[in-house]
Write a structure and sequence with these properties.
The complex is a heterodimer of chains A (48) and B (302). Chain A has 48 residues and is mostly helical. Chain A has 1 helix and 1 strand; from the N terminus they run E-H. Classes of the chains: A mainly alpha (48), B mainly alpha (302). Chain A: It comes from Novosphingobium aquae.
């Protein structure tokens, strides 16, 4: 975790933002896969 | 890149993760999963995974909202001062929006993918924890933990309802077991961190009613928990494996509560070992009790 009280550089700031974006992209990607899977299950069950 | 000095560093992903109280979430996921596995019917594994994910997301959203509301209180307590908001690593609006987003998404996905009843109970549990407990009861009454314990008791009920789409006596009993487990679990903790709660003005039982009364109540709730944990067997919801496990585990819980209930701290240097032992065992107790419930169901061939 980062300590905001330490003096920071633009490079450090960009690194934190890049990491955050990567995690967000992974989470969103996982949700896309999950929703696709739920849809297939619902169609097969005849409940979609 | 140029080494330009900037004012603040944005919160990183680990700050968002710690906002969800991962330790609490693991217990919520476990009890929710056990509620599902203890149910007499099954849904498709992907839907079951989604239901447990929604329970976890709802709990994570509630935790984030709790930290948003209590940021100032957390700053005044040693145990919570390093959380992202009091430590200044995240602003309050971000935490609030993160909590609302998670909570809303969990209810919507539960309603659309699983069933409406499970979504309604999940919504009630989020409201119960974030509003009834965090905003309303916790700063006002020493009974906050007793009533607020209901919020933590919802996951097995939601797991059960996700599987069956129906509420019967069994999920209500599972709810009551966690409801009765919460006061001795939390008051054991409050006994050895009570100076922190007193400092920030939270009316926890040891602060308001005193240590002696809290200790007696820990003992009383632990005594009630013993027969209550056997009710699933009495009503025919489980077999002898669960009954034996519950009798041993709840008997031990009561045994650990007796020294806590009958003693008083010897002085400021008291290490509070019985209280710490009870707190640690109470976490293990809930894991093992629900594990016994699932083991009983699995061995019964359901």
């Amino acid at each position: 975790m980062t300590d905001p009280k330490k003096s920071i550089t633009e490079e450090q700031r960009q690194k934190v933002i890049r990491q955050r974006n990567l995690v967000l992209a992974l989470v969103l990607g996982a949700f896309v896969v999950l929703f696709f899977a739920i849809t297939i299950v619902k169609i097969r069950n005849g409940t979609a | 890149m140029a080494l330009t000095q900037t004012q603040t560093l944005p919160a990183d992903w680990r700050d968002f993760l710690s906002l969800t109280k991962p330790g609490v979430i693991s217990l919520v996921i476990f009890t929710g999963l056990c509620g599902y596995l203890a149910a007499p019917t099954r849904i498709h594994p992907i839907l079951a995974f989604t239901a447990i994910l929604c329970i976890a997301m709802g709990a994570a959203g509630s935790a984030a909202l709790n930290m948003w509301w209590e940021a100032d209180i957390d700053a005044g307590m040693k145990r919570t001062a390093k959380r992202p908001l009091p430590a200044g690593r995240m602003d309050k609006t971000t935490a609030r929006d993160f909590g609302v987003g998670l909570a809303t998404a969990s209810v919507l996905i539960m309603g659309l993918a699983i069933n409406v009843l499970a979504a309604v109970i999940l919504a009630v549990s989020i409201f119960y924890y974030a509003v009834v407990y965090t905003i309303w009861l916790k700063p006002r009454t020493p009974q906050n933990i007793v009533i607020g314990g209901g919020a933590g008791a919802f996951p097995p009920m939601i797991g059960w309802v996700a599987a069956t789409g129906d509420i019967t006596l069994m999920p209500v009993v599972l709810f009551l077991i966690i409801f009765m487990w919460t006061p001795p679990h939390f008051w054991a903790l409050a006994l050895f961190v009570q100076t922190d709660y007193a400092k920030v003005g939270i009316p926890m039982m040891p602060v308001v009613a005193g240590e002696r009364s809290t200790r007696r109540q820990i003992l009383a709730y632990s005594a009630i928990l013993l027969p209550l944990s056997l009710v699933p067997w009495f009503i025919g919801g489980t077999g002898l494996i669960y009954a034996a496990g519950a009798a041993v585990l709840s008997g031990l819980f009561l045994a650990y509560s007796v020294p806590v209930g009958l003693r008083m701290r010897s002085g400021v240097d008291d290490a509070m070992k019985p209280e710490k032992r009870l707190f640690k065992y109470s976490i293990l107790y809930l894991f093992l009790l629900f594990a016994a419930l699932v083991a009983d169901r699995m061995l019964a061939g359901v």
